[in-house]
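To the wet lab folks,

You asked to see what we're planning to order before we commit. Fair enough. Below is the target structure as tokens, and below that is the sequence we designed to fit it. If anything looks off to you, flag it before the synthesis order goes out.
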């Protein structure tokens, strides 16, 4: 049984999937399921924090077919490729600072015209200041200053009332503190700088000590 649970996101029996815009190609070792001439790529929650958050009950997925997205920490393109299936009429600016890792994403970008690879440091948004303003900012960089990175990039690129999603890894921030305490502090920082945290999704058992915040950007006062 196939059911569309958000725009362009499907459950096929008990598997989360997106409809591939690059038929016949795998990006990682994902399974492909064919239904009525379409190919659906199974979205693995152990390899994608966004998939994990969806399966853990994320209520609102702001990514729509025509969304413009800035994705920070693109890595080799696992989650960005699913976002590219969802926003099939939109655009994803995918920033990664490791040339070696970004190179692995390039073959996926060839037939995915909405997925734009950018070699850049998310700490320095001025390096890619040529991109347009976006509806959604997605960040998964696993760095101690991840909230600061989100704030900086939002100032440059996120439309007012746009959405931000950030995956926070407690251990990247402080190994000595309780994850709960870290998440509370990170939330306070984001709320101080113009974000309203709408949802907080603990993504255990897919990732340990990680949380995904869905936020709305009101802009700094
Ligand atoms: C956890 S991985 C991202 C996985 C990816 N989001 C996915 O779900 O497929 C984090 C990535 O962020 C990158 N990264 C870390 N700091 C960065 C920075 N300041 N600017 C750009 N990329 C960064 C790392 O090189 C790594 O590839």
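Sequence we intend to order:
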């Amino acid at each position: 049984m196939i059911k569309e649970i958000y725009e362009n996101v499907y459950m096929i029996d008990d598997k989360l999937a997106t409809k591939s815009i690059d038929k016949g190609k795998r990006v990682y070792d994902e399974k492909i399921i064919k239904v009525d001439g379409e190919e659906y790529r199974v979205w693995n929650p152990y390899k994608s924090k966004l998939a994990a958050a969806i399966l853990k009950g994320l209520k609102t997925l702001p990514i729509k077919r025509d969304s413009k997205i800035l994705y920070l920490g693109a890595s080799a393109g696992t989650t960005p490729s699913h976002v590219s299936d969802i926003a099939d009429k939109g655009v994803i600016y995918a920033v990664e600072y490791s040339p070696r890792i970004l190179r692995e994403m390039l073959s996926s970008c060839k037939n995915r015209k909405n997925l734009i690879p950018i070699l850049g440091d998310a700490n320095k948004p001025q390096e890619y200041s040529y991109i347009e303003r976006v509806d959604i900012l997605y960040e998964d960089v696993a760095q101690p200053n991840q909230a600061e990175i989100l704030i900086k990039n939002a100032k440059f690129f996120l439309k007012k009332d746009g959405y931000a999603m950030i995956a926070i890894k407690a251990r990247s921030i402080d190994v000595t503190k309780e994850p709960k305490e870290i998440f509370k502090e990170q939330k306070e920082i984001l709320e101080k700088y113009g974000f309203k945290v709408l949802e907080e999704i603990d993504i255990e058992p897919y990732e340990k000590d990680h949380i995904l915040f869905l936020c709305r950007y009101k802009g700094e006062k």
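Structural context that might help your review: The longest helix spans residues 179-192. The chain has one domain: 44-217.

Thanks,
Computational group
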